[in-house]
Specification:
This protein has 241 residues and is α/β, with parallel strands linked by helices. The protein has one domain: Rossmann fold (3-Layer(aba) Sandwich). Helices cover 29% and strands 29% of the residues. The chain contains ten helices and eleven strands. It is globular, with a radius of gyration of 18 Å. The structure holds S-adenosylmethionine. S-adenosylmethionine binds next to loops.
Amino acid sequence: MSDPLYDDPEFLELYELFPRQQKGLAGAGEWPDLQALLPSVSNRSFLDLGCGFGWHTRWAAENGASRVLGLDASKKMLDRAIATTDNPAVEYRLTDLDNLDLEGETFDVVFSSLTLHYVADLDQLFTTTRAATAAGGSIVFNVEHPLMTGPTKLDAIDHHGTTVWPVDRYADEGPRTRTWLVEGVRKHHRTVASWVNGLIDAGYSIDRLVEWSPTSEQVAENPAWEIDRTRPPFLMVAAHV
Ligand SMILES: C[S@@+](CC[C@H](N)C(=O)[O-])C[C@H]1O[C@@H](n2cnc3c(N)ncnc32)[C@H](O)[C@@H]1O
């Protein structure tokens, strides 16, 4: 089993060029705000859903996590994660999150970065993670914001001299096929309410939502992020059991 998108050499060659894949967490503008949602990982077990190259699994291990498990459907992503991780607390497993089985395993912190919008059956996933979240444990994740996953066209437009982000089909949840580095990339759109209520229905209690946009200072350093202050690129959620 393997993720055809992230195993596609043409896609991967372009994906590796992103600053966040070159510099790791230092190249991810939202990381300080996502990190602020996380509880301490020291002496706690940490599960990373869609770990990619393993930036967050290594961070958890370096910050004292007792056990770290990184799951990903792409063999090529995992090969690189394994090659760049030498901490014995970290384990990686080739896993499709649409068929996740965590039977008999528990984690204090369930985490995911920019992956869950690829999952088709979110209710099933949250039910599985909830059963595997230890008492007092947490789930923290970020996803592409529904204002990014919903619209048919991802294009800012000028409206009487103001830059606006057109939104359509917001209530029409389900798959969207995008051109993102390559053609035919499939993501799943859900409303903000569905992300939150999916957690509640699975038995989590919500702690905080962040509709992340860069600060004005970050935009000054990265002018291409200006549009991210018109609409947030990411939704972050923290919840506990
Ligand atoms: C945008 S990358 C994020 C990687 C990493 N979490 C990070 O923030 O650097 C999305 C990751 O999700 C993985 N992925 C996508 N669909 C998946 C699925 N159904 N099951 C497991 N992993 C999946 C991809 O292989 C890829 O590594």
